[in-house]
């Protein structure tokens, strides 16, 4: 039986912009994302990264792990 994996439904995907979709893709591949990594990879500000993570957490796609400087985000199905 395949490992249970949280899929992004079309309704969820419609709420995401291209950058957020790319972030979801990285999470599904098993990467842990940080604000700094997203700032560098996508050329965005820390505030923008925080807003993107907030959307992904609210949709149940990502889960916040840690606090402060050690905050990172993982795919919600991974936990």
Strand order of the largest sheet: 1-2
Q: Helicity level, as a percent range?
A: 40-55%
Overall form: globular
Strand tally, please?
A: 2
> N-to-C SSE series?
HHHHEE
| Helical stretch tally | 4
Please state the average pLDDT score: 88
| Termini gap | 18 Å
Task: Bin the strand percentage.
Answer: 5-15%
Contiguous low-pLDDT stretches (5 residues minimum) are 1-5
Question: What Rg is obtained from the alpha carbons, in whole angstroms?
Answer: 12 Å
Largest sheet: 2 strands, antiparallel
Which secondary-structure class do the elements indicate?
mainly alpha
Describe this structure in words.
The protein is built from four helices and two strands. The protein is mainly α and 79 residues long. Strands 1-2 form a two-stranded antiparallel sheet.
Summary keywords:
79 residues, mainly alpha, two-stranded antiparallel sheet, 4 helices, 10% strand
């Amino acid at each position: 039986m395949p490992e249970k994996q949280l899929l992004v439904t079309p309704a969820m995907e419609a709420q995401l912009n291209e950058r957020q979709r790319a972030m979801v893709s990285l999470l599904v591949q098993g990467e842990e994302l940080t604000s700094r990594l997203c700032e560098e990879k996508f050329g965005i500000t820390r505030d923008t990264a925080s807003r993107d993570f907030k959307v992904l957490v609210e949709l149940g796609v990502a889960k916040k792990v840690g606090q402060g400087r050690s905050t990172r985000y993982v795919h919600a199905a991974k936990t």
